[in-house]
Amino acid sequence: MTADPRLAILGRHALFAGLAPRVLEELLAQAVARDLAQGEVLFRAGQPGGQLYAVLEGRVRIFLEGAGGAEITLNLLGAGEVFGEIAMLDGGERTASAAALEPSRLLQLRRESVLAALRRHAELAERIILLLCRRLRWTSEQVEDSAFLPLAARLAKRLLALTDDGASRLRLSQRDLAALVGASREAVNKLLVQWRVDGVIRQRRQELTVVDAEALRKVLEESA
Q: Rounded CA gap, 25 and 173, in Å?
């Protein structure tokens, strides 16, 4: 019998890594696939949230929307990443919006299924707690970086994080990058132009390729 490829993808995330196969299979039995076109919005902040999502393919943008259509990108999630856990757990409203940055396939888990599995499997409950702690630490780290790291180091750190799954090519706008590091698009563009001249990155329209990751690590180390 061929192994379900979704098991391997879920196994990349801390929430599911190391869980007994029976627990994962129980969750997958109640899950459905959800395909999104590029730019398609999955949900918006303020809407009811009854599902947990895992990215199987593609990339999802988590963002906030302000008055007049302004948007702030909070995070970009790739294959194996999980999102939507806060509203799924407490049954409240979504705290942010989510949309596909590129054609994507998601695994959708219903709140009732996840909560039932939590009651039956203590190890899954422990993983949920660890996931929430990880999110809190990540948020604290973002605040700390914005306060103490120069822009070049923040941008280098974010580009390295976005490519740490082995992908060197990113599809995102300078506006998205600027929002991710808490800077203006003009300031980010100035840095990217210099890094392009230095051979650290390549750019073509909204596609950015990291050519020299070691140079980005050096930028980050020099700011420590």
A: 37
| Burial group, residue 95, by CB count within 10 angstroms (0-12, 13-18, 19+) | middle
User: For the chain (length 224 residues), average pLDDT per consecutive 10?
Assistant: 70 77 85 94 94 92 83 85 90 94 93 89 87 87 87 93 71 82 91 95 86 93 83
Q: Which residues partner with 55 through β-bridges?
A: 106
Side-chain-side CA neighbours of 109 within 13 Å: the count stands at 27
- Which residues contact residue 4 at a Cβ distance below 8 angstroms, ignoring those fewer than 6 apart? 25, 28
Query: What is the structure's pLDDT at 196?
Result: 94
Residue 70 main-chain phi, psi, to 5 deg: -65, 145
CA dist 166 and 155 (Å) reads 18
The residue count of the chain comes to 224
Nearest to 48 by CA among 81, 86, 74, 75: 86
Q: Which residues pair with 33 in a beta bridge?
A: 107
Note whether 58 and 36 are within 8 A (CB): yes
Predicted local confidence at residue 150, as pLDDT: 94
Contact present, 105 and 58 (Cβ < 8 Å): yes
DSSP string, 37-94: -TT-EEE-TTSB--EEEEEEES-EEEEEE-GGG-EEEEEEE-TT-EE-HHHHHH--B-
Cα–Cα distance measured from residue 212 to residue 208, given in angstroms and rounded to the nearest whole number: 12
Asked whether 81 and 57 are in contact (CB, 8 A), the reply is no
